Structure formats: structure tokens, C-alpha cells
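anyone seen this seq b4? input:
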Amino acid sequence: MYFVSAFYKFKSVSESQVEHYRQDFYEYGITHRMLGLIILGTEGVNGTVAASDAAGLSSFKDHVQSLYGDLTFKDSQCEQEPFKRWSIKTRPEIVSLGDPSVIPDGKHNHLSPDEWDEKLASEDVVLIDTRNSYETVLGTFEGAVDPEIEKFSEFPEWVDQSGIEKDKTVLMYCTGGIRCEKAIYTMQQRGYEKVFQLDGGILNYLKEKPDGRYQGECFVFDDRVAVDSDLKPSSQFKLCAKCGVPGDVRINCHCCDAEAVICRECDDVIEYPACSKDCEELVRRGVSRKQS
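predicted toks r here
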């Protein structure tokens, strides 16, 4: 069993502190046999980590908070390793909007799952899914606007072209909340005043309301690919063997006969169904690895 937690915190730190935290996290993870990915920058920290026991994860949370102060953690569990390694990376932004000068100042216009549902039920709102298009196809809130962006840095341009009236109440959501922190700031810069985000994102909503308004599964950036309404690893979606986005079309490799998964877009255009790029090339050349 693996105990998984996603977290983030916007907190301005110096370049020297970033390097100190990078070394600290790396050594901590190696010593305690952690798995996961942590992104560090001068604007804060963003990560998803896993430990093989609950006590180990709890100790790690205490360690993170000793460096960054109070954080909100989104927890889940899985049977298989959600990550293959322990990785600490430093980047100009802990979530890439394309403008490092945008640093949210903490919890801002957050709605709890109960408050979220209440607004959806009682008000005329514009509901926006700020995630990438390969994420939104797995699940969404009914009635949400899908910007159909390929990466988060495209969101500001989408807002400029959206035609959403400035006096509208806007609700936004993402996986764990971090993208919405910057998305709110982006919309406020453009004159939108009534903008709110789902506190803790979809992951927190599913924890509180597994039978709530969210429909489908939620993409996550690790080997689970997605989680269902009970925050269990997806049994439906895997990463497409052809392009790497989530897919649920089962195929048998024409080279080695292994079962593989591809996305629906690749299923429409694929010429040589295969479980890997190596097998695809062999099929292209007329070579088979199938057992006779």
C-alpha cells in the first residue's frame, strides 16, 4: 500500500533558499525511501509524494510544514507505486502560467465543496475548467466551459477571447487548486471581480463529496493516470502507448500481441497498432515478435 499526498504553497523565498530546500528534500526523500515529484521555485512549492506507510507520510508533512508553514494536503491511497523515483526540480514557476511575476497571496476567494455546490445550485454563474484538454475528457462538472487549452500558459489568451461578461460570477476549478490561484489573478487583472475557485480542487471535492456533482474521473500527474470518485486509481484509463495522453481503447499489439491502451484520437488514425514505439517500428517493417 502507498499513501499519497498532493500539496502546494505560494511563499516567496530567495534563490539560495530554493537551493537549500532542494538539497533538503532530496536527502530527506532518499533517506526515508519516498517517491514523488516536488517542484520548487522562488514563488513556493508544488508536489505530489508517496510513502509506503502512513507514519512516513505524516512525518514528511511535518517536515514540509517546518519549511513552508501550514499547508493543505490532498490524500489518497493506492496499491501500486504511483511514481518510479524521487525527483526534486527547480523552475521559474511552480505552475507555469508563463508570467513569473504573478504570485498569488494565499487563499483567495476559495469555496468549500458545500459552498461550491450551493453557488452552482442557486446562482447564474460561468463555470470554467482550467485544466488541459487531455484532462477534461476524463471528467468534469456538468455545464462547465472547457477552454480546450493544451497547456495552462494558454489560459490568459483564452480569457481575452472568451467574451465572458465582466459582471458575471465566475467559478473555476482544477485538479488540486494551484492553477486556479493564478487563473483568478489573471481574470482579476482583466476586470473580473466576482471570481471564485473550488478550494482544494477536484481532489478535495471528491474526498468530501464522492457522489457529488463531479462526473467521471480526475486526471493526476503520476502513474495512476486518474482517480475515480473514491480517489482510487483508475481501472479505465492508462497512458496512450502512441502519444502519452490518457486513453481507454484496448488493443493487441500487432508485433508482440501484448495488450495495450491507446487514446481515441490515435485509434482513429493509427496505422500500426502497437504497445510501444519499438514495436510500432517493427510492425512498420513487417517484423513480428508473436509467439508461434
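The mean pLDDT is 93. The first helix runs from residue 15 to 31. kinda curious what u guys think
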